[in-house]
Amino acid sequence: MTPSELASPDGTHSGRTPSRIVVIDDEQDMRASISQWLSLSGFQPETYASAEEALAVLSADFPGIVVTDIRMPGMDGMALLKKLMGMDATLPVILITGHGDVPMAVEAMRLGAWDFLEKPFDPERMTDLARAALKARGLALESKALRQELADGSTLMRRLVGNSPEMVRLREDILDFGQADGHVLIDGETGTGKTLVAHALHAVGPRAGKKFVSVSCLGLDDDTLAARLFGPVEQGGLPLIEEARGGTLCLEDIEALSPALQGRLLSVINDQPTPPATRIVAICNDHKPGRTLEDVLRPDLYYRLAAMKLTLPPLRTRGEDILALFKSYAADYAEEYGSPAPDLSAQDAAYLLQAPWPGNIRQLISIAEQAVLQNRRGTGSVVSLVMAENEASGGALTTEGKPLKDYVEAFERTLIDNTMRRHKGSIVAVMEELCLPRRTLNEKMAKYSLSRADYT
Ligand SMILES: Nc1ncnc2c1ncn2[C@@H]1O[C@H](COP(=O)(O)OP(=O)(O)O)[C@@H](O)[C@H]1O
Ligand SMILES: [Mg+2]
């Protein structure tokens, strides 16, 4: 992905070369002649008589450059330069120096000035400098935006807990699909992370700077939903497919879309250019046994949406993620409620592993919260919480997808975790207590994603 591919079609996302030039000089004649020359060369100069006045229009992402005199009453050019460099070190500032100010100009370059012009200056050199500075400004703003997007995307990716092969695969798919342009279908039981993954897909890709618009196809009558999606909208305003232009339109509960609207959606999809102006991420939330999305959607729409399909696995089949998720959310709630997370016993771990989790991660998060609250009151156990939930949902404990090895590992992980906690991260103390050589302990901690820093 190159910066220019990131630029939006309408240029709002710093895709265009910036064009503004702020010209600051206390002498009216100088301002006028600089400004006139720059205008004649096709630039858009704006003149200011003092640094203070100019600062009112300058900000960290200012789409342009600054040309300023050094000697001025009030804030002088050097002080302004320092201030601007503190605000945005990539903002090009060109200084105009009087005759014999060379040492000052050198100091200015050291502070981060883009370049300087000695009076009386050569107009040709001024336009050359301005052109190069504006170009550089464009690139700097673009890469800043790109970094921002990647940063946001990786924050979201970090929220995805779990190192099971399924989770590793899911992370790879999110990164791949996120970069691609086609529409996406996300399927999976309730609470498996479909909505979170839809956001992650948007955040890791080139559409990250654009809107993510979410709407449910459930509960609205056909006419209202059609108007909201495709227009015309009653009170004016944009239909959602337009509002999400350049970005992502997330259609939750796609299985509830009527046949008529399915046809309408298909024709809107077919009319879009390639790559599509609005990317559609459809989420199927209905999981009646025996009914698949292929039975519900018309085949031509299904195949358009399912070119890239993600099916999120149920929690009960991801044995090794269950404890990592529980621990991560219990730690979050412990911080929120200002009371420690409960120690897990081997029996707690075994119950967490065997629960059927019909509500998947959402249900596990709720158990983690209850466990922290319970621990604060000093009552109950994780086992009793899991049993109570289980009875409520009528599910039996299950060992589906979990060989004995998973339980043994869960036990081992819990034991190391608890011991590390008790010894506040002292590796030596844990080695002694568990009779483990350092290397084995390190290997096991790496295997279970336990980090010493979390205990000190
Ligand atoms: N891999 C994951 N790691 C951590 N939290 C997750 C993960 N997947 C989902 N969650 C969390 O689980 C809850 C349910 O996820 P959500 O995306 O709402 O599920 P769905 O849309 O499939 O019903 C949310 O709070 C979400 O942040
Ligand atoms: Mg959801």
Overview of this structure, please?
Helices cover 52% and strands 11% of the residues. It has 456 residues and is α/β, with parallel strands linked by helices. The protein folds into three domains: 3-144, Response regulator (Rossmann fold, 3-Layer(aba) Sandwich); 164-313, Rossmann fold, CATH 3.40.50.300; 317-454, no CATH class. Helix 14 (319-337) crosses helix 15 and helix 14 (319-337) packs across helix 16. The protein is flat and about 85 Å long. Mean pLDDT is 86; it is low at 1-15. Adenosine-5'-diphosphate binds next to helix 8 and helix 16.
List the helices and strands and how they pair.
Blueprint: H1 3-6, E1 20-24, H2 28-40, E2 44-48, H3 51-55, E3 64-69, H4 77-87, E4 93-97, H5 102-111, E5 115-118, H6 123-159, H7 165-179, E6 184-188, H8 194-203, E7 212-216, H9 222-230, H10 240-243, E8 248-252, H11 259-271, E9 279-283, H12 293-296, H13 299-305, E10 308-312, H14 319-337, H15 346-354, H16 360-377, H17 382-393, H18 404-422, H19 427-434, H20 438-447
Parallel strand pairs: 1-2, 1-3, 3-4, 4-5, 6-9, 6-10, 7-8, 8-9
The structure holds adenosine-5'-diphosphate (ADP) and magnesium ion (MG).
